[in-house]
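Quarterly update, task 2.4: molybdenum atom-bound model.
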Amino acid sequence: MIDIKRRDFLKMGGAAAGALAVGHFVPPPVARAARAVGSLDPNGDGYIPTMCEMCVWRCGVLAKVQDGRVVKLEGNPDNPHSRGRLCARGQSGLMNTYDPNRVLTPLIRAGKRGEGKFRTASWDEALDLVAKGMLAIKDKYGPEAMVFSSTHNLSQVQFENLLNGFGSPNYGTQRSLCFNAMIVANLMTYGMEEPTRDYSQLKYLLLTGRNLTEAISTSETTDLVDSIARGVKVVYLDPRFTRTASKANEWLPIHPGTDLAFHLALIQVILSEDLFNKEFVAQYTSGLEQLIAANKDYTPEWAAPITGIDAEVIRRIAREFSAAGPNALAHNGWRTSNFVNSFPTQRAITILNALVGNWGVTLFPAAGEESGGLGKPPQPPYPRVSARRLDGVPWKFPFVPLKLGIFQQLRDAIVDGKPYEAHGWFIARQNPVLSLPDRQKTLQAFSKMDLIVTVDIILNDTDWFSDVILPEASYLERYDPFLAMGNKAFLRQPVVEPQGEAKSALWIYKQLGERLGLGDFFQYRDEEDYLRQQLAPMGVSLEEARLHGYVELPEGEAKDIYKFDTPSGKIEIYSTTLEKGKFDPLPVWEEPPLPKPGSFYLISGKVGQHTQMGTQNNMLLHKYQDVPRLWISPGSAEGLGLKDWDQVEITSEVGSQKVLLNVTPAIRDDCVYLTPGFGHVSKGLTTAYGVGASDAVLHVTYVDPISGSQALTQTLVTVKKV
Ligand SMILES: Nc1nc2c(c(=O)[nH]1)N[C@H]1C(S)=C(S)[C@@H](COP(=O)(O)OP(=O)(O)OC[C@H]3O[C@@H](n4cnc5c(=O)[nH]c(N)nc54)[C@H](O)[C@@H]3O)O[C@H]1N2
Ligand SMILES: Nc1nc2c(c(=O)[nH]1)N[C@H]1C(S)=C(S)[C@@H](COP(=O)(O)OP(=O)(O)OC[C@H]3O[C@@H](n4cnc5c(=O)[nH]c(N)nc54)[C@H](O)[C@@H]3O)O[C@H]1N2
Ligand code: SF4
Ligand SMILES: [Mo]
């Protein structure tokens, strides 16, 4: 039995904690199969192409292997997401594999939940136990009583096979915490999830809280930096002075939650001054007349006191934006769930783009990550599901795509036991204890479970509350299914052997599926067989794919980029779909909650050195991040009698945390900001445990009624000295 205390964890050695000690790399040998490929010299040294998994962007990597270990990760020039570059997190990816806290054998809980006592187990024992628990829940309460959740990853298709084959409708993803507002707004307007942005002809860029130089997507961050170098004008809206603000021509520290008013006023100027692209709007959009009528009172003078931005500035930006015409782009952001009004904000952004007619110039149809040309193992149809989803999709939220779902709503339905009780939760590659708002509620949901199973590589905070932990091989140790990007399909392949007993997700889901009687959904012998079935229609060998790290996909049919999958076949300024759903068919102003005197908006936002809640234990990245302190403006600090480095207590209606203060002019007076992803509670994370505070404890749960987005900036907090 293992009682994992912070210091003890390292001493444990052996199976549960991983055999590696801090600072001593004892890496495993180069993957045998990789050597066979031919990209390495006779000693087994050289570069192996694969894909990064330090965030969801999936840059192409060339892993340098020497004496049987990965010694360096470089960007793969062949990959459009990296174009030869990796960000700091990508370069630190070897410590994701060599983290001394890796879980290297299945673990079974041996004490109370949350106590951190686990014993090691064989795969057979762990998988048998999980299957038995899941089948017991299915027999007693029906398959819907088993909830599945996972954050997007390359093996998700097999995760979905597992839950769909099992027959549960309950599927939680990170998306409602991330970009539901943007996706649903794009679906309503363009009939597609996320048009591709193209910076090559860009002249004017409006970034609404898209902190591209810290919340990094390597290729797009590069596009922004190149655009700035060639003189593209960048206007950036953010209540904080971020690194992107420092690179922009103009930083507008907008009042949080009022981006909608700002965009409505831009639209008002463009319409009232007749500055829109008439030809484009007439040919490709519908609803201009209704927009003109509905929008006429949203003048810059109306928006100025709401947004805190001068009317003259708003008017000038509207004129500049429309003067750049189709070469302008209003970026619709990525994690766009700041306020409950983020959905109409997103709609306003799509409309602004339509008015300048930038389709086909700076905006294009999504490049598509469809499997275009790739094969897949055969499988039977899924069983019919009669139970409603716990998250209310689509019965309460008709416009939220099933694959997006509403994670925070799912969690709340588990707590409430309505419309029915859930009894088991299978969680893969996700850390809801830190990523869902209101941690206490997440733990309450856990307490209702007969069975919690997690799949991770380290003992994250959610694993800490798990009953059975299934250790996945790290991204440098495993295969995942091919990922189609444009006209190529990229490969993740092992560059070193998996350590301990860690296994790929493809292996884990198949083994579990077979024990659940779902073997027909997993018709592949092993990972390589899965990949060969994907390659079969193209007649390319796996060896060839492994050598280059990708395969060319057959040319798809040329598509008409002006065909929009909306009811009118046009870009819908006026959304008939929203109208049918009895929602506003045009964006109308909704005021965000305003802070009472002495309270602040709690702002969350990424930092360049970390991804979400999962990299704080990475020893290379940890070195480059001071313990995050709470940002507050000098005026607000003075008003509360607080100084830089004071220890303060920050309190919301659902929780409180203690943090050190960072007094900085880089934030508005009505906001405070905390870096997310700290305040880990798992003592199995010896580098990250106890460092900083978690804003998940403070966030109040909000659900936007149309897109299901969580509003992450809408939480109000007070700050006092302790
Ligand atoms: N280094 C790093 N890069 C990442 C990630 C990561 O974790 N680390 N995660 C990836 C993922 S999953 C995502 S979704 C993207 C997210 O990419 P972004 O959406 O760009 O990132 P965030 O930091 O979540 O939010 C951006 C900014 O919004 C501001 N903001 C908050 N409220 C408001 C408001 O009301 N109005 C305006 N205008 N601004 C507001 C915050 O101050 C913050 O600076 O980043 C991706 N890239
Ligand atoms: N307070 C606050 N909350 C937020 C956000 C915020 O900015 N602030 N951002 C929101 C956004 S944009 C997003 S996308 C979500 C993300 O929310 P989550 O997806 O829950 O968070 P991650 O940190 O990405 O969780 C990744 C987990 O995967 C594990 N992991 C890493 N590599 C592997 C692997 O190869 N295999 C397996 N099986 N596991 C692995 C990590 O150890 C970690 O536990 O959070 C949202 N929540
Ligand atoms: S953006 Fe950085 S962390 Fe994300 S995939 Fe690319 S290199 Fe990896
Ligand atoms: Mo995200």
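Highlight for this quarter: The chain has 25 helices and 28 strands.
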